[in-house]
Amino acid sequence: xxxxxxxxxxxxLRAFHWxxxxxxxxxxxxxxxxxxxxxxxxxxxxxxxxxxLGLLCFRIIWGFVGPKHARFASFLPGPRKLWRYAKGLxxxxxxxxxxxxxxxALAVIGLLAAVSLQAVTGLFTGDEDDFRWxxxxxxxxxxxxHHRSFYLVLLPLIGLxxxxxxxxxxxxxxxLLGPMLTGRKPAALVPASEAIAGSAPIRALIVICACAxxxxxxxxxxxxxxxx
Length: 228
Ligand code: HEM
Ligand code: HEM
Fold this sequence. Notes:
Elements: E1 5-7, H1 11-32, H2 41-65, H3 72-75, H4 79-90, H5 102-123, E2 126-127, E3 132-133, H6 143-170, H7 177-182, E4 184-186, H8 201-220
Antiparallel strand pairs: 1-4, 2-3
Helix pairs in contact: 1-2, 2-5, 2-8, 5-6
Bound molecules: protoporphyrin IX containing FE (2 copies).
């Protein structure tokens, strides 16, 4: 273990992040791009959507039971803290946060909410002419939201998120990407009392099993089977 760096982001949180990004990329590809090697892209679209729902379920629970910097209570700022940080950021101050910065915390909530909107409305989306629908489409038709929210809400937020990471790197000289890959930040930026002891893998496994069970119940207990 490198002694000049300290663990900040646990492995389950990092795995969540990169699987979420891949899953959303896959969901877009299977909905919008004809992939010649995929005989049934819509079936995969639904599977990826269920996987995304499982990831969201994991992240929400992990926000209460995960290691320190994964917990919502450790990073959600009050309005005063947020205002002070935003003023400092644009006034050229560069104090680096150990976990999410107050503005980063807003991005986390915004992104989680936007992905949830997309994935949940997918369950209620369909197109009867093309014989395609999610498993709860017969209960309520939310296709109009699912069709618009990707391009009007989720994609702009993802763009802003990636632009913010680039801004911190280029202007503030803060590397946020490296720690989201390795979990570690330089020891100079992380007091020993702020580092996390480990990734709590057994706890993560229990949460993953609970989320998998919940998503299975949601899909197999649905009034109809998704059609493609
Ligand atoms: C579909 C695309 C993406 C989504 C939905 C997404 C979502 C998120 C979420 C929810 C978090 C908070 C992590 C947590 O506490 O759970 C986060 C953090 C982060 N993401 Fe992404 N992300 C996406 C793509 C990317 C990409 C392409 C990059 C690379 C530039 C990236 C870099 C980061 C970094 C560096 C952080 C940590 C920010 C910090 O230190 O506060 N993300 N992202
Ligand atoms: C985060 C996860 C998801 C993303 C990013 C996503 C994205 C998209 C996109 C971009 C479209 C095309 C919209 C258009 O052409 O206007 C679409 C269509 C569709 N999605 Fe999703 N989706 C997700 C989850 C789901 C889930 C969980 C289901 C159901 C199990 C689902 C079912 C559908 C259906 C049935 C359509 C086609 C509607 C039609 O042909 O009119 N999606 N999705």
